[in-house]
Design goal:
CATH topology: Rossmann fold
Distance between the termini: 36 Å
Structural class: alpha/beta
Helix content: 25-40%
Number of helices: 8
CATH architecture: 3-Layer(aba) Sandwich
CATH superfamily: HUPs
Number of domains: 1
Shape: globular
CATH class: Alpha Beta
Strand content: 5-15%
């Protein structure tokens, strides 16, 4: 990672998309370990798993993030997803089923919306780097988690801002988890001191924030911890057997 854009020896700023989940919390730690000063950006977008927003606040505070912005947008106006509309969250799916198609938990254009906000903030800070916790291996086949999507957004960013056009910003989008398994992500974060007890990943938590243990996000998370040889410290509604 190029960290030479800092001024007077200070750490260069980087915008980190922080949802409060396992992946984004690991990326926050990676950005800091890579020599950046993370500026965290969290979205309250009408998701049913809004407990993640509270988790993001705790994680940012634990990581001593001095700039943490929570943006309110309401994607429930559009619906089209089990996370923002009146659609049941799939439960108990196998790995094969998760990889067979784009699931109903896909939120239309969500990463494009999030990265656009990150791009705007990066131009103002100014920052040359954006970190995002997308993953193309141990995840549910979302189109906006693919390497070709990130490459396309990088090209867009160079054309979309005044800083990009006048050459004062050479934006880099970092996706350090892109080709890691969930177990590898957990091992990396554990080595960096990430407190996964603070993180929340469930698509359908209860009112107290306890995870269902049955949605795709829970099953992938539980399997990742098992493969990493660790216990998941997050709260679940019921004791869960390790997914096969």
């Amino acid at each position: 990672m190029d960290v030479n854009n800092g001024r007077n020896g200070a750490r260069p700023l980087a915008v980190v998309l922080l949802s409060g989940g396992l992946d984004s919390s690991t990326v926050l730690a990676m950005a800091h370990a890579g020599g950046f000063e993370p500026c965290a950006l969290t979205f309250r977008y009408g998701q049913r798993h809004e407990v993640e927003v509270d988790a993001a606040r705790r994680i940012a505070a634990r990581a001593h993030v001095t700039r943490h912005v929570v943006v309110d947008i309401d994607l429930r106006l559009f619906g089209g997803s089990a996370l923002t509309g009146d659609i049941a969250v799939p439960k108990g799916r196998t790995t094969e089923q998760m990889g067979s198609d784009i699931p109903v938990t896909y939120v239309p254009a969500r990463n494009t919306i999030f990265l656009s906000f990150a791009l705007a903030w990066a131009e103002v800070l100014p920052a040359q780097d954006i970190f995002i916790g997308v993953n193309a291996l141990d995840y549910s086949g979302y189109p906006d988690c693919r390497p070709e999507y990130l490459d396309a957004f990088r090209r867009l960013a160079a054309l979309a801002t005044r800083a990009g056009v006048d050459g004062t910003q050479q934006l880099s989008i970092h996706a350090p988890l892109l080709q890691l398994t969930k177990a590898d992500i957990i091992r990396s974060g554990t080595a960096l001191g990430v407190d996964y007890a603070l993180t929340r990943s469930c698509y359908d938590p209860d009112d107290m924030g306890a995870a269902c243990g049955e949605c795709d996000a829970c099953l992938l998370r539980l399997r990742g911890f098992a493969q990493a040889g660790l216990a998941d410290p997050a709260p679940y509604r019921h004791a869960r057997a390790t997914p096969a």
